[in-house]
Design goal:
305 residues, mainly alpha, 2 domains, 3-stranded antiparallel β-sheet, DNA_brk_join_enz, DNA binding
Length: 305
């Protein structure tokens, strides 16, 4: 919203959204390299924010038309920043987190850098087990938003302000789940008792190493996840892309997974997660084909030409 206001001031437009100003603003964003999907999303947030903060009940058919057209075009263009190589599977990312934690344990419980590595491994495990955006992960707080119940149950409760929601939804919405994950439960428990106190006296699940008392920001979490996966998996996977991995793996492995995925991701647009379901259908077909080819290699057969 602030970016919109600044653009309007610099270009001499009123901040009230119109079809013409949205079209012009979309053009400027596109010239800056912003994808069509992101432009559509930005305009939707601007319209929602204006209706919430400036003019309750504001609606514009022209604005809706611009957003709808960009959304349709964005679906055709696809996601330019996402590649198939980034789909390694949520289980792979979770296991990588486990491996990093094992390496941290080997360094010993008195080493601050071991605590950092433990935190980093826990970040990947949490991102794969609780597929929320980086903003939500930055709100993870042991004893407040992440509560260890009787093993192996973990209660994750986030306020609406931590989620990607329209402004008018944040006051009454939230994320509330109870997970059954003994590996993650043990990791959080050990971290809280042994490694977390090395940072500071706080309870943030992902505390900052350099700024004592502060937590790792959402932007830093995104970069950290990308750096870790780039280093260990040779492919950069953002926190948001981890969500795609969860959706794809759920679609592959769970019955009716394409329809379960929106619940896992807390995503209200089934079309978004159905894209992962479609991809998973291709993955499953490729796997079946590989199995068939392997079985054919177990005996010889003459070709009839």
């Amino acid at each position: 919203m602030l970016r919109w206001v600044a653009w309007c001031e610099n270009s001499g437009h009123k901040i009230t959204p119109t079809g013409a100003t949205f079209h012009a603003y979309a053009g400027d964003l596109a010239r800056e390299g912003v994808s069509t999907r992101s432009v559509s999303d930005y305009l939707g947030r601007i319209q929602s924010g204006y209706a919430t903060a400036c003019d309750p009940g504001f609606k514009s058919v022209a604005c809706d038309h611009v957003i709808s057209r960009l959304n349709a075009r964005g679906k055709v263009e696809g996601r330019p920043t996402k590649t198939g190589e980034q789909l390694v599977g949520a289980s792979t990312i979770f296991y990588l987190g486990e491996q990093i934690i094992e390496m941290a344990r080997a360094l010993g419980p008195r080493d601050l850098f071991a605590a950092r590595d433990y935190r980093n491994g826990l970040l990947l495990m949490a991102a794969a087990a609780v597929p929320q955006r980086a903003r939500a992960l930055s709100h993870f707080d042991i004893g407040r938003t992440v509560i260890l119940l009787e093993r192996p149950y973990i209660h994750v409760s986030l306020p609406g302000s931590a989620l990607k929601l329209r402004e008018y939804e944040k006051e009454h919405a939230g994320y509330d789940r109870v997970l059954e994950n003994p590996v993650l439960w043990d990791a959080v428990d050990e971290y809280w008792r042994i490694f977390r106190p090395l940072f500071d006296n706080g309870s943030a699940l992902f505390p900052s190493l350099l700024d004592v008392g502060a937590r790792v920001s959402a932007a830093q979490i995104g970069r950290l996840a990308g750096n870790l996966t780039q280093k260990h998996l040779r492919v950069r996977i953002s926190v948001h892309r981890v969500r795609d991995n969860v959706a794809t793996e759920a679609s592959e492995e769970l019955q009716a997974g394409g329809y379960i995925a929106p619940v896992l991701l807390d995503n209200r647009n089934p079309a978004t997660t159905m894209a992962s379901y479609d991809h998973a259908e291709g993955v499953r077909a490729a796997r079946d084909h590989a199995d068939f080819v392997a079985s054919r290699r177990s005996f010889s057969a003459s070709l009839r030409l």
